[in-house]
Amino acid sequence: MDQGRLSFLALHFIPGIGDYLVKQLVSYCGSAEQVFNTPNGKLLKIPGIGKITAEAIKTGKIFHQAENEIKKAEKEDTEILFFTDKKYPQRLKEIEDSPSILYYKGNINLNHPKSVAIVGTRQATDYGKEIVAQITESLKPHAAMIVSGLAFGIDIQAHKQSIKHNLPTVAVMGSGMDVVYPAVHKEVAKKITDHGALLTENHFGTKPDAHNFPARNRIIAGLCDALIVVEAAEKGGALITAEIANTYNKDVFAVPGSLGITYSEGCNKLIRNNKAVIYTSIKDLEYHLNWSIDEGHTIKNEKLELELSKFSDDEQKVLSLLKDKGSPMMIDELTIKSSLTPSHLASLLLTLEFGNVVKSLPGKQFTLAKK
Q1: Does this model's pTM top 0.70?
Q2: Which residues lie below 8 Å from residue 249, measured CB to CB, with a gap of 6+?
Q3: What domains can you pick out in the chain, each with its CATH number?
Q4: pLDDT digits over 196-232, tens only?
Q5: Minimal CA–CA distance to 230: which of 150, 140, 126?
Q6: Cis-peptide, bond into residue 182, ω within 30° of zero
Q7: How far apart are CA 314 and CA 366, in angstroms?
Q8: What pLDDT does 232 receive?
Q9: What pLDDT score was predicted for residue 181?
Q10: What share of the chain is helix, strand, coil (3-state, %, to 5)?
Q11: Do 274 and 349 contact (CB within 8 A), yes or no?
Q12: DSSP 3-state assignment of 366?
């Protein structure tokens, strides 16, 4: 058994250690394995680590729990993905509160070129179900990955329609991989593993307790390029997911509904408060995400042979990042990866845009200009 992976998993069984502290420990100590070899004195100097946590790291019980979890994963045909793994979704890596571990069951590349989340009320109307069917069918030429939460209503309709149109779909669960909720969706969940994947951050045996679902919603929001709210009441999980997606600078869309209808109130409110773009057809999505069917399944920049020597060191840094990415980058991602201040980066991008080297896109995204 790989000691490094076992150590990473063991960290998750230490009481009081969440995703942030796991990443913090690994960052300070160099590796998960090294965390357990670090003296208490040094552990206590790590921000967020107190005496009780430091002592808990030294207990052997957590390794026994981790070993059992790996055995369960093998039995359930489930792969455990760590934050440092190549297969871990890149979109999630870019959000601050991303899970440090994911349980994955299926046969899909989680770094799919195009990803759309579809969410909404559990009390879906015939209108809502029809809209989901239209959206998924219109996404077929883009071969987009459809993300949702396996819940009643809009969620399960999104998964079913994805399967119908042979689109990859990811169901993010608010329970352990061995606890499909709601239970009546077990058959659909089984089909999803053939057409996509089941995904959760929860250990095996975790029950679908209420507090797990807001956490699940951040994964749904983090996994997508755009989130579409189809039907939603004035309050509920779909609106929470939309709020989270906005904080991640994702493009959020809402399907408008009739006035006075309960499950249209949430969507209309999002549009009214400028927290979502009105969704009327696939053209709205294509425009805001700069998607094109003609260019294949993903928008890629032509391989530009830039003479980087003509640019300043900071400009070279930005251009190299855009070239390596091969697709549009959000300004927040550029800020993090370039280590430049937001104001300086904005100034550089403006200069490069005036020079027709960089092109700005809707949603605060940037790409190399095509020659």
Answers
A1: yes
A2: 330, 332, 363, 364
A3: 3-75 (1.10.150.20), 106-289 (3.40.50.450), 308-368 (1.10.10.10)
A4: 999 999 999 999 998 899 999 999 999 999 999 999 9
A5: 126
A6: yes
A7: 16
A8: 92
A9: 94
A10: 45, 15, 40
A11: no
A12: strand
